[in-house]
Amino acid sequence: MRTLRSILGAAALAALALTTGACFGESTTNIHHTPPPAAPDPDEGESCEAASKNDEIRRALAPACEGCHLTGNKPFFVSLAAFESGLVYNERYVKRGEPENSMLIQLLKGVAPGSYPQMPLGQPYSALVTNGQVTLTIEQVEAWIRDLPARPVQLETPVPEEFHVRRLAAEEMVVSLMEQLGLTLEDFVSTSDPNWRNKAYVVNGGKLFVWPGDWSPGISNEYVSDSRSVERFEALGGGNSLLYRKKDVGFGPSAAQTLVQMSQAWCARAVDKRNNPAVLRHVTLADTSATNPEAVRKNLRTLYLRMLGQPPSDAEAQALYEQVYLPLEARSTRLGWIGVCAALIRHPLWITY
Q1: Distance between CA atoms of 320 and 340, rounded to whole angstroms?
Q2: Are 27 and 58 in contact (CB under 8 A)?
Q3: What b/e sequence results for 334-352 when a residue is b if at least 16 CB atoms lie within 10 Å of its CB, and e otherwise?
Q4: Average pLDDT, stretch 75-91?
Q5: Fewer CB atoms inside 10 A, N or C side of the chain?
Q6: What confidence tier does 120 reach under pLDDT thresholds 50, 70, 90?
Q7: Which domain of life is it from (predicted)?
Q8: Under 8 Å CB-to-CB from 289, ≥6 apart: which residues?
């Protein structure tokens, strides 16, 4: 039977894998002289060795670039296939044999045309090399482009049998959790004044508002009366393009602590919201395990499916019922459903995608 302790243990393991599983940045030295990697031993699991010269460059650039280009509409660093098809063999960014005419080099040097002359945002790439955040120099990138082989007839293609797991981004956590819990912006901020968007709005007390600083309303904190709402978002790993802060793709203690607080506060808001069936679809707070046990169990299974996208096994539903709901129901049914809801948000299936 899968107990609550095993669920929390799995979450910790998932966080550890998300934080330490990537091999980016580990093979960034001797970029010109690294011998071809040996075939991996099938008994040793997945290798962190670069698969090719292009893969060496991808891994070497990743510490500077993956914060903005692991997700979104330009996820160049999510895989070798994405790196090659989206950047290496895309003449908009890389002109084979012509580093001086390649936008990638211009971006690294901070002289590219357009709205964003420099990538990454914030510190110049050369400064990242100087302080040791990356070891691949611009000159080495230029040499790679100069000697870049022709595009292969067929680039690496995804294998349907393989899949990759990543943590939810902060934006995805905020938007999806509001949707799943039946919450809206108006549940967190006072909007009764018709001119509320043009002045500091009041965050309703005790609701643990979480909101990006570069989303509207709230651009550059100008309209946000509680600066902690932005701090919490950044603790979840969210970036802020206006302040040149990149996303954190790991899942460290700050993100875990913020998600725990957020799950409890937002689940409480969803349970207390009148006429909100998101959490209490088949029960009311008057229903208990003694007076209406079937409805309680049905609601637990429905909430599990809503939050995690798959029905629970009998063993997992029983563990959640006995180890989370019943001990909290002894204090109140409200606390019982807040606890179940919060536990599901901290489940590995919710945290990952």
Answers
A1: 7
A2: no
A3: ebbbbbbbbbbbbbbbbbb
A4: 88
A5: N
A6: confident
A7: Bacteria
A8: 296, 325, 326, 329
Token pair 């698969």 is found at 51
- Report the candidate in 19, 323, 334 with the shortest Cα–Cα distance to residue 165: 19
Domain boundaries along the sequence of the chain = 23-146
Sign, CA torsion 301/304/309/314: negative
Lowest-pLDDT choice from 249-253, 263-267, 322-326: 249-253
Over range 210-236, report the average pLDDT: 73
Report CA-CA distances (Å) from 258 to 129, 174, 252, 266, 270.
Answer: 32, 12, 10, 12, 18
How many Cα atoms within 13 Å fall on the side-chain side of residue 108? 24
- Per residue in 5-43, pLDDT (tens digit) is 444 444 444 444 444 344 543 433 333 333 444 444 444
CB 225 within 8 A of CB 209: no
For residues 7 and 347, is the Cβ–Cβ distance under 8 A?
Answer: yes
Place of tokens 């069936």: 277
